[in-house]
Amino acid sequence: MSSIIMVLFFMVGYKVLTSVNLYTTMRADVIGKYLIEVGHWKTLVLRDFRGVGLDILSALGIAGFFWSLVFVTRGRGMGAGDISLGGLVGLVNGFPNNILAVFLGFVFGSIFSIPLVILGKKKMKDAIAFGPFLLAGSVFCLLYGNQV
């Protein structure tokens, strides 16, 4: 939970700092002063903060999806830690890469788990941690998400 708070703090703080830097840069230029007067700076700042809001909403959607999986399976299909990890992955990757990260987490988990079941090393009822696969999907999206 503390990592989610840190990421939120960073996201908002970064947008505030870049907005102040943009304002300072624009104030130093004649055309920039005009753009501030006509409201262009405000439009840019609102667009950036809407993006942060979309990232937060999509992260809440991912956490809600994982919560519903925990609720439906009564904790046997997925653990409560995956809820907060899903929210964190959602915030770090941002929309729409966070959805791809979750999808890839399920794909990576399947690629790893299905052969274990086929070979008899694991049974369908055995638990396999989902967190590493979710993190693998997240790292993949951080590195290659825009290309996908």
Topology readout:
Elements lengths: L1 H26 L2 H8 L2 H34 L7 H13 L3 H22 L12 H14 L4
Could you describe the 3D structure shown?
This protein has 148 residues and is mainly α. It has six helices and no strands.
Task: Give the tags.
148 residues, mainly alpha, 79% helix, 0% strand, elongated
Question: Could you provide a short overview of the structure?
Answer:
By secondary structure, the protein is an all-alpha fold. 79% of the residues lie in helices and 0% in strands.
**What shape does the CA trace take?**
elongated
Terminal Cα separation, in Å? 29 Å
**Rg calculated over all Cα atoms:** 20 Å
Number of strands: 0
What is the strand content? Answer: under 5%
| Multimer state | single chain
* Portion in helices: over 70%
H-E string? HHHHHH
Identify low-pLDDT runs. Answer: none
How does the major sheet shape up? Answer: none
**Tally of alpha and pi helices:** 6
